[in-house]
Protein 1
Amino acid sequence: MNRRTFLTTAGTAAAATLLSTPTRAALAPIGLQQAPLPYAPEALEPHIDAMTMGIHHGKHHATYITKLGDALKASNLQTSNVIDLISDLSQAPEDQRMALRNNGGGHVNHTWFWKWMAPAGSGPQGPDGKLAEAIQSSFSSIENFKKLFGEAGTKRFGSGWAWLIVKPDGKLAVTSTANQDNPLMKGVVADAELGTPILGLDVWEHAYYLKYQNKRPDYIAAWWNVVNWAEVAQGYAAAKA
Ligand code: MN
């Protein structure tokens, strides 16, 4: 199945047609608007503090969207789905590619990140059903998965993300990326690490520094309390459909 990318060059309406991959088909499109946080900024306390959430969503994420808009304008591009845009930037002008990658990735990653969290105790406390079975069969146990995922976040040097992905063959994998890259970015991420993200953890210092300072492992340990496992299960089911 081929899909239009909605990447159009202003004036010519020429759209690039990209190969559809199972990687993206499962993901809801992300436009240029910023959705409000799905909970109050203080709702994740004590694990993630209200000030961090307010600045992270209201300043950091908002700035990625502003700069993405600037880069699109400078590129003479429009998009109705930033996921498609960042998954293959080969059509974008070379001098704007890095800005589109960083700010487009920043927008997409954070849009997901807010949904992958929920107030502690508001939903399932861990994976269950088919997701739990898949995690157990891929990583031998849920505890071992958490250990590997936490290590991916701890060992990521500088800023970046840890990911749980569904690979094109349907298998689960833990990966990590630098900066605002993500596992959909062909040509940026190694082919073997491409997949559909179903859980991601922001390990940029802006995500935890006010409360945890340099103690990234403490932030990661606390973050498990606010993972929205219902959302992760939904993402897994969609990626496997
Ligand atoms: Mn962030």
Protein 2
Amino acid sequence: MLERLEGLEKDALAALEAVQDSAALAAWKTACLGRSSPLATFMGDLGSLPAEQRPQAGKRGNEIKRALESALAAREETLKAADLERSLQSEKLDVTLPGRPVRRGRLHPSSQVLRRIYTVWADMGFQIYRSRNVELDEYNFTLLNIPPHHPARDMWDTFYGTDPGVLLRTHTSPGQIHAMREYAPEPVRVILPGMCFRYEQITARSEIQFHQVEGLAVGPGITFANLKGTLADFARRMWGGNVRTQFRADHFPFTEPSLEMDIECFLCGGKGCTVCKYSGWLEILGAGMVHPTVLKNGGYDPKTVSGFAFGMGPERIAMLRHGIEDIRNFWGNDLRFLEQF
Ligand code: FA5
């Protein structure tokens, strides 16, 4: 009887040695330690043994059961370690390697400056008024006090469509007429951002396409002092409280009087450097009081209302801000340039 027991242990341990995976291990457990296993059957039949053999057989049976259980646990550990080793070999994964970075999109430098400009003017109560890129000669020139054959048309030459009088606008100023005609006789306070196009020599500072942000305020009692104060306030909000501004007389057919505003060079603080061409000042925008003829063309009575307008170029502002030396970079589509912003 005891020999049968010993044989049973030997067979079970030999079978366990042959087990190579967890499914086989589970099958071995059922076969050798389960309720219908030879060992369980043996223990169940103990009662049929002669009384003097029973204690020894029972004791030995329990010893074998424990031995098989610990052999099972040991085999389980061995298989797990082998499994891990195998997966480490076959799927080499170095968790300490840095992840592959996801390339992030970003806003074009012009869009970044535009958004900054929108925020500043919005804080000052100016709404955005969208106007068209393809314009009529009438709006781009004539209604802005630039009649046919006026010399200013040379300065603002553009691309013409096949339909007579249809052109790509050279500035955002025609938007002034659209806005005035929509709001007159009520007061209006808007900025007009958008693309402009010019038929001119491309240089490091001049493109044939670029953005402008126009501004327009019309209402009773608006003065030149309001224009200066508003522009100086814009500069402070845009470039910081300490920025100094300077106004120079200029000429635009659609404003009278007209001016250009410079800000103190933020690179050299006014001392003079290559960016400001040793003048200490950077030209930022053109502006003036809306010409009475333009007010009339917009549907206002220049005897009862007045207004101011201004126009700035975001690309030139971005160039000054970031020390960009060539405006052609903006439309060059070169990621080495664009990814710097
Ligand atoms: C105008 O276009 C006027 N309409 C501005 C204005 C509006 C004056 C309202 C008074 C009242 P100007 O041609 O100077 O003016 O252009 C204004 C700005 O547009 C320039 O200061 C510059 O920043 C930008 N700009 C003009 N031409 C180009 C160009 N070829 N490439 C890039 N930016 C340009």
